[in-house]
C-alpha cells in the first residue's frame, strides 16, 4: 500500500542520508547493526539493505543464510525510489549474484559515493565471501568503489601482492587505484610498529599502526595509537560506515577518513567487555551524558557557578561599564596583560605539542601568529594610554599574573590536551560574555567612557566568532577524551575550570588594586 503525504515547507529539510548494504550480525557487534549504530552516532539518517542473515556471536559465525539477490534488489529499489541516499557503504555481499545485483542497481541510480568494505573474513576467522565471488568483486565492484577499505589480508587477496611494510601497502593501494578504485585505503592494523618505528615482533611491544590512503597522486600515511584490547569485533564495518557518514555530509575523502578514524579509535578505546571472544565496540562513546543532560560547557559553568559569576561580574568589570575605574588601575592592567599575552602564546605552543594531527598542530601555530598580531595591536592601544613599549617591557610580572599563567602551563605539562583547553577556556568564554553584557546593557556609560572601546573589542564579531569556535572545539574534545559515565574525570575538569575562574577574578583584582 502506498501513501502520498502532503508536506509543508518546514518539512522539506533533508538530513544527510547513508545506506548500508551488508549482512546482519545476530551478536550486534558488526554488519548492519554496527553500521546503523555508527550512522546514528554520527547524526546521519540511515537505511539498510540486508544481504545475508548470520548466526554469530563474539567467538564464531555458526551459520550464514544469504538473501536471494532478487530480494536484495527489491530492498535497494524501494529505498532509492523513495528515501534516496547521499552515500552507500557495502559490507558482506557473500556471493557473486548479490555483488552483480548491487553493482547494477547502484549504477542505475547513479550512486557515486560508494564505500566498499571488501568483507571476506570475520574477526572470529569465518569466511564471509564465497571463493568464486572474489573475481567478480575485482572486475565489477572495485570499478564503482569511491573508497575501498581493505585490511592487509584483504588487500593481498585483491591485488595478489604480499604486504609486509608501508611501501608494500603503497604498492597495493596503487594497484587497487589502477583497478578502478578512486580512493584506496589500506588499513594497517595487521602491521604494528614499536616505539622505535620498527615492525613489532608481537602485540605487547606494539605502539602504533599506520593506514595508507591514496588519491591517484599523493599518499597519506596516518599513524594511530595501537590500542591493546581484544574488543575489535566490527572495526572494519564501523570505519567504512563512518567514512560513508562523512561523505553523506559532503566532507572530503581525507576529512571523512580522519574523522572516521578518530571516531573508531575512541569506539575501541571505550569498548565493552561483552562475550568470550572479540568484544564489540562502544558506538555511542561520543554521546556523553553530562549532569542533567547538559553540554560539557554548561556543566563547567554550572559546577563553578559562584566562581564564574565572581569573575564576569567583578568590580573591575562593573567599573569599566560605568566609566569609574581609576585610570592608573586600567594602565596597570594593560601592562600586565602584555606579559600575559606572551605566556598565552607559550601555552598554545604546548597545545601544539600535545596534538598528533598535523592539521590541528598547524591550527595552534595559526593561533600563536594571531597572538603575535594581537600583541602588536595591544602595544598600539597601550600607546594611546601613554604607555610606551619600554614601559611594557620593564613591567614586573605581578603574582596574580604569574599564578594564572603558570597554572595553565602546568596543566599543559601534567595533563592532556583537554586539561589544557579547559584551563584556557575560562578566559575565552568569560571575556566574550563580559564584552556582550557591557555593550548591550542600557545602563552602560558609552559616551565619554575611556574604557568602552575595550569592551567593544570583546563584543565584536571577530572575538565572538572565536568564542563559538572555542565552544565547538571543547565540546568535541570532551567527546573524544572523556569516557562515557566517567564522573571522576568530569569533576577533575570542572575543578580546573573553577580554579581558572578564581584566577581570572584575581587578575581583575590585581588590576583594580594594582597588586604586585
UniProtKB/TrEMBL annotation:
Matching InterPro entries: Haem_Oase-like_multi-hlx (IPR016084), HMP/HMP-P_kinase_dom (IPR004399), PM/HMP-P_kinase-1 (IPR013749), Ribokinase-like (IPR029056), Thiaminase-2/PQQC (IPR004305), Thiaminase_II (IPR027574)
Entry keyword annotation includes Membrane: no
Domain of life, per lineage: Eukaryota
Residues spanning the signal sequence: none
CDD domains: HMPP_kinase, TenA_C_ScTHI20-like
Gene Ontology cellular component annotations, sorted alphabetically: cytosol
Gene Ontology BP annotations: thiamine biosynthetic process
Hydrolase among keywords: no
Domain Pyridoxamine kinase/Phosphomethylpyrimidine kinase: 25-282
Gene3D superfamilies per record: 3.40.1190.20, Heme oxygenase-like
One Pfam family of this chain: TENA_THI-4
Keywords recorded for this protein, A-Z: Kinase, Transferase
Domain named Thiaminase-2/PQQC: residues: 308-512
MF GO annotations: hydroxymethylpyrimidine kinase activity; phosphomethylpyrimidine kinase activity; thiaminase activity
PANTHER family reported in the protein's UniProt record: HYDROXYMETHYLPYRIMIDINE_PHOSPHOMETHYLPYRIMIDINE KINASE THI20-RELATED, PHOSPHOMETHYLPYRIMIDINE KINASE
Name of the protein this chain belongs to: Phosphomethylpyrimidine kinase
Provenance organism: Neocallimastix californiae
Amino acid at each position: 500500500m502506498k501513501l502520498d503525504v502532503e508536506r509543508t515547507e518546514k518539512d522539506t529539510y533533508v538530513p544527510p542520508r547513508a545506506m548500508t548494504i551488508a549482512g546482519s550480525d545476530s551478536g550486534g557487534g558488526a554488519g548492519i547493526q554496527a553500521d546503523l549504530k555508527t550512522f546514528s552516532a554520527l547524526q546521519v539518517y540511515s537505511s539498510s539493505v540486508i544481504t545475508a542473515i548470520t548466526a554469530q556471536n563474539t567467538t564464531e559465525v555458526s551459520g550464514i543464510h544469504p538473501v536471494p539477490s532478487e530480494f536484495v534488489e527489491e530492498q535497494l529499489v524501494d529505498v532509492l525510489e523513495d528515501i534516496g541516499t547521499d552515500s552507500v557503504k557495502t559490507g558482506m555481499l557473500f556471493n557473486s549474484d548479490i555483488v552483480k545485483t548491487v553493482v547494477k542497481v547502484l549504477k542505475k541510480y547513479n550512486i557515486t559515493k560508494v564505500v566498499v568494505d571488501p568483507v571476506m573474513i570475520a574477526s572470529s576467522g569465518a569466511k564471509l565471501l564465497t571463493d568464486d565471488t572474489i573475481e567478480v568483486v575485482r572486475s565489477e565492484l572495485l570499478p564503482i568503489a569511491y573508497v575501498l577499505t581493505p585490511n592487509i589480508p584483504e588487500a593481498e587477496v585483491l591485488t595478489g601482492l604480499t604486504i609486509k611494510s608501508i611501501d608494500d601497502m603503497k604498492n597495493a593501494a596503487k594497484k587497487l587505484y589502477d583497478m578502478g578504485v578512486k580512493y584506496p585505503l589500506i588499513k594497517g592494523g595487521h602491521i604494528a610498529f614499536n616505539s622505535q618505528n620498527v615492525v613489532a615482533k608481537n602485540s605487547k611491544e606494539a605502539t602504533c599502526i599506520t593506514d595508507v590512503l591514496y588519491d591517484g597522486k599523493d599518499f597519506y600515511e596516518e599513524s594511530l595509537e595501537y590500542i591493546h584490547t581484544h574488543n575489535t569485533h566490527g572495526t572494519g564495518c564501523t570505519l567504512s560506515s563512518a567514512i560513508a557518514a562523512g561523505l553523506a555530509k559532503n566532507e572530503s575523502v581525507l576529512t571523512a577518513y580522519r574523522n572516521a578514524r578518530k571516531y573508531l579509535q575512541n569506539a575501541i578505546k571505550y569498548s565493552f567487555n561483552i562475550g568470550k571472544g572479540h568484544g564489540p565496540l562502544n558506538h555511542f562513546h561520543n554521546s556523553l551524558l553530562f549532569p542533567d543532560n547538559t553540554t560539557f560547557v554548561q556543566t563547567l559553568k554550572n559546577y563553578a557557578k559562584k566562581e564564574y559569576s565572581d569573575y564576569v561580574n567583578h568590580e573591575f568589570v562593573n567599573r569599566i561599564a560605568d566609566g569609574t575605574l581609576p585610570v592608573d588601575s586600567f594602565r596597570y592592567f594593560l601592562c600586565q596583560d602584555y606579559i600575559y599575552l606572551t605566556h598565552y602564546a607559550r601555552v598554545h605552543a604546548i597545545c601544539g605539542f600535545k596534538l598528533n594531527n598535523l592539521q590541528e598542530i598547524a591550527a595552534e601555530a595559526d593561533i600563536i601568529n594571531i597572538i603575535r598580531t594581537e600583541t602588536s595591536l595591544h602595544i598600539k592601544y597601550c600607546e594611546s594610554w601613554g604607555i610606551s613599549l619600554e614601559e611594557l617591557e620593564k613591567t614586573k610580572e605581578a603574582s596574580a599574573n604569574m599564578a594564572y599563567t603558570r597554572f595553565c602551563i602546568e596543566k599543559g605539562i601534567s595533563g592532556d590536551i583537554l586539561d589544557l583547553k579547559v584551563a584556557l577556556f575560562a578566559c575565552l568564554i568569560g571575556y566574550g560574555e563580559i564584552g556582550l553584557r557591557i555593550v548591550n546593557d542600557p545602563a552602560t556609560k558609552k559616551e565619554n567612557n575611556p574604557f568602552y572601546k575595550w569592551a567593544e573589542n570583546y563584543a565584536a564579531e571577530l572575538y565572538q566568532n572565536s568564542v563559538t569556535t572555542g565552544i565547538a572545539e571543547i565540546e568535541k574534545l570532551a567527546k573524544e577524551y572523556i569516557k562515557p559515565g566517567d564522573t571522576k574525570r568530569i569533576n577533575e575538569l570542572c575543578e580546573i575550570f573553577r580554579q581558572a575562574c578564581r584566577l581570572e577574578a584575581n587578575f581583575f583584582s590585581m588590576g583594580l588594586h594594582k597588586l604586585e
